[in-house]
Amino acid sequence: MPWELTTILIFGLVFLFLASGVPVAVSLVGVSILASYIVSGSAGALAYGPWNITTQFVLIAIPLFIFMGELLLRIGLSDRLYVGAAAALGKLPGGLLHANVGSCAIFSAISGSSAATAATIGTVAIPELEKRGYEHKMVLGSLAAGGTLGILIPPSIVMIIYGSMTGQSIGKLFIAGTIPGILLLLLFMSYIVIASIKTPGLAPGHEQLPIKETILRIVNMWPIGLIMFIVLGGIYMGMTTPTEAAAIGASTALIFGLIFKKLTWSLLKDTLRSTVKTTSMIMFLVVGAQLLVGILTIERIPDNILNLVVSSNLSPLMILMVIYVMYLFMGCFMDGTSMILVTIPIVYPIVVALGFDPLWFGVALVILVEMALLTPPVGMNVYIIHGLSRQYPISDVFMGIIPFFVVMIIGLIIITAFPGLSTWLPGKMM
Fold first, then answer.
1. Which residues, in sequence order, are CB contacts of 331 under 8 Å at separation 6+?
2. pLDDT tens sequence across 157-179
3. CA 323, CA 343: separation in Å to the nearest integer?
4. How far apart are CA 74 and CA 120, in angstroms?
5. What pLDDT digit, counting tens, does each position of 87-102 carry?
6. Backbone φ and ψ of 162, nearest 5°
7. What angle do CA 309, 311, 316 make, to 5 degrees?
8. Rounded alpha-carbon distances, angstroms, from residue 43 to 7, 55, 71, 298
9. Do 371 and 172 form a contact (C-beta atoms < 8 A)?
10. Count of CB atoms within 10 A of residue 133's CB?
11. Which of 40, 200, 224, 225 has the smallest C-beta neighbourhood within 10 Å, fewest atoms?
12. How many angstroms separate the CA atoms of 162 and 155, rounded?
């Protein structure tokens, strides 16, 4: 069978399954097995794929980071985080809206999940800002957009998956996302300042605290700051691998649970149960994607597509723009993790062959995935924030994220124009 027809058949079946409402992981596994029988008459060639991917040492970091974030959430550190961020940023034009995106950015450094970040900060922030009379679309939009920082600012589960599939250093990917993550945070805050000055009714302001109280609330965030230093500092200084850093971070979270007398058997069981559920979901997706990669590799589809693209007359930048548009379109129908798992076997060889830095592309890809978390009808963060504010229609959340979505496009353009923002810091790692 010609490789073009095989490609259309495989991806056509994947999207047909997805359109029919079949879960992504089941779709990937089912199509892979079906395609294997069509192509070779058996599924034997797929036997070792799941084993090879699930036994990678670096993937152990996924459940450890999930456990760390879940535990820190349950022992109440998210409340300290929001109060501290409000004290530090509340005096800026826009008031507590800055605390929304700022606390999301900080919580991102202890949770590799955008969904967890949006849900955690949204639970604390929405009642507080409603009570103070903030414009609700701006509140909901800032929380949904701020939550996306969860997979850009390290640690990031999406980066772990990207690195495991492409052979890139997870540690360098983590550090590569730091400056772009801070840049995106500053862009969000800049928009909030401009919008608040232009329309004062958006943000009524924040209570003026004495300097001593402000400092006390900021210092009270020290447990989160310590974990950030342990995890990211250890990776940056070359003292730990990402998996070791995740293990140390999870152990530190357990110690904090004991110190603050919040750790109980019931809480620990709930944390472990949630960790197992989330990890199982992610690994099922990874296994499904690995099976699909096996079929694509056997049929040499990535190599054929690469040769076709390289031999075209399009410039590398034009091809990159096509890739960007493809991801934005796919983000309307698929979640970010699934997008990466399905497309990386095809897209990554093209990007590398065109001369783009793999670390930089990993960061750009994560920003595209962040944008997918906000696009209808599958925007995960939008539904999470709407679930926390049922009194408002979901259309208000979508309206609230539009300006932040534009800001993210600006951030992507900046990262594309200045790739050194992603590659400089990893080059300084010890």
1. 339, 368, 369, 371, 372, 373, 375, 378
2. 888 889 888 889 888 998 999 99
3. 10
4. 10
5. 888 788 888 888 888 8
6. -60, -45
7. 60
8. 18, 21, 41, 12
9. no
10. 11
11. 200
12. 13
3-state secondary structure string, the chain?
CCHHHHHHHHHHHHHHHHHCCCCHHHHHHHHHHHHHHHHHCCCHHHCCHHHHHHCCHHHHHHHHHHHHHHHHHHCCHHHHHHHHHHHHHCCCCCCHHHHHHHHHHHHHCCCCCHHHHHHHHHHHHHHHHHHHCCCHHHHHHHHHHHHHHHHCCCCCHHHHHHHHHHCCCHHHHHHHCHHHHHHHHHHHHHHHHHHHHHCHHHCCCCCCCCHHHHHHHHHCCHHHHHHHHHHHHHHHCCCCCHHHHHHHHHHHHHHHHHHCCCCCHHHHHHHHHHHHHHHHHHHHHHHHHHHHHHHHHHCCHHHHHHHHHHCCCCCHHHHHHHHHHHHHHHCCCCCHHHHHHHHHHHHHHHHHHCCCCHHHHHHHHHHHHHHHCCCCCCCHHHHHHHHHCCCCCHHHHHHHHHHHHHHHHHHHHHHHHCCHHHHCCHHHCC
Residue 146 has, within 13 A of its CA and on its CB side, a CA count of 32
Tokens of 41: 């008459």
pLDDT band at 44 (very low <50, low <70, confident <90, very high): low
Domain residue ranges of the chain, discontinuous segments joined by +: 57-428
What's the whole-model pTM score?
Answer: 0.84
Q: Which residue has the tokens 């050194």?
A: 420
Burial class of residue 374 in the structure, from the number of CB atoms within 10 Å of its CB (0-12 exposed, 13-18 middle, 19+ buried): buried
The distance between the two most distant Cα atoms of the chain, rounded to a whole number of Å, is: 74
Rounded to whole angstroms, what are the CA distances from 301 to 21, 293, 320, 347? 27, 10, 19, 11
